[in-house]
Amino acid sequence: MSDLVMLLTVFVLAIFVGFEVITKVPPTLHTPLMSGSNAISGITILGALVLAGALGEAPLAKILATVAVAFATINVVGGFLVTHRMLMMFKRK
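The structure corresponding to this sequence follows.
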């Protein structure tokens, strides 16, 4: 039980710290940070694909790995679309 409380505490603190860090990012740093976020989500996709293929007959684990692949893919595609749109704002006409 204490492990669950510890994990939930770390999870809540991570949410709080992540929110505070993201709200303090100035707009000029948004595009470089989005690129870094895309790279991290790409690693998440690879890890989830490996888990989805290696878990054998564990149906819940396969479902969670598939959901992780879907969410990370949405994050990567959305990040590239936002980055592309921001870079188009700086193009000369």
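Residues 59-89 form the longest helix (31 residues).
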